[in-house]
Amino acid sequence: MQKQFSIGLDCHQATISGAILDQNGRIIIEKRFDNKAQELEKFVAPYSLGAQVVIEASSTSLPIYDQLTGLGIQTLVANPLRLRAISTASVKNDRNDALILAKLLHANIVPTSYVPPRHIRELRDMTRSYTTLVQQRTQAKNRIRSVLTRNRLRWPNTNIASEPARVWLAVLPVDPGSKGVIAANLAVIDSLQTEIKKIKQAMLKWKYCREELELLQTIPGFGPLVSRVFISEVGEITRFPSTKKLSCFAGLVPGLRASGEQSHATSIIKASNSALRYAIVMAAWPAIKNDPQLRARYDRLKARGKSSGKAIVAIAHHLLCIAYVMLTKRTPYRVRV
What HEC string does 106-149 produce? Predict the structure, then answer.
């Protein structure tokens, strides 16, 4: 069906500014209304037949996207970073932003963002919350280690929150303030541990993409959690035409600086999916312990003068490429001894 109307929506927590253009690019209506389901439906309903809608990706965009697609309206989510690069305006306000979105949609030059299916978004919420809680637990442990460092003390083993460590911490000859900091952070760790356990159980009960999970878990280092992070962040593997595109998305390839005839590689791309990159890099460490080929690759990189950090990032990149090939070809990984 030919696009009859181009609708741009600038969405905020309390309000939405909308602009609607006809097929010739003329403004039909501009309006600001409350961000409520009934108000949004009232605004778009008279133009829903043959309409396309564009909204900018934000914390408020997904409920609106779900409502509009549920109404059968084709809806695009614009990439905010790329959007700013092609739509500079001297006047910046909600009304003007909505009109710019509508004009870009009318011209078919909207830089779109991928919107995962609902079940993938559900998993993503869980995996990102899990990662955040684990990082907060690590921060609490580091605060305890900081107290020990200031007192010239050191727990000889890794887990500072283990039962033996707690017995040791309880009798330390430190000042009351230090004891209070240690006790407070142990309480934080206990609280976080309870929530981490709950969300981990919920993640493991997630019932979708079973074939993909089984394939991913044949890769060394890819346990149940890393495999779920991979699926939640990547979504449908078919949206990446090559391993290079997926590697750029994960930030596991170096950047490039070029000027004139000179160019050189820089550090890995930071403007990428940090959650996926972190998970794959963490998976690379156990992978080199369990797969002789991966270990040999790691050792060769070290022998060529690579630091352990750069070598493990290269292994992570290799694992990412393996995962891409496995999911596209639907074949499991086999460790060759």
Answer: HCCCCCECCCCCHHHHHHHHHHHHHHHHHHHHHHHHHHHHHHHH
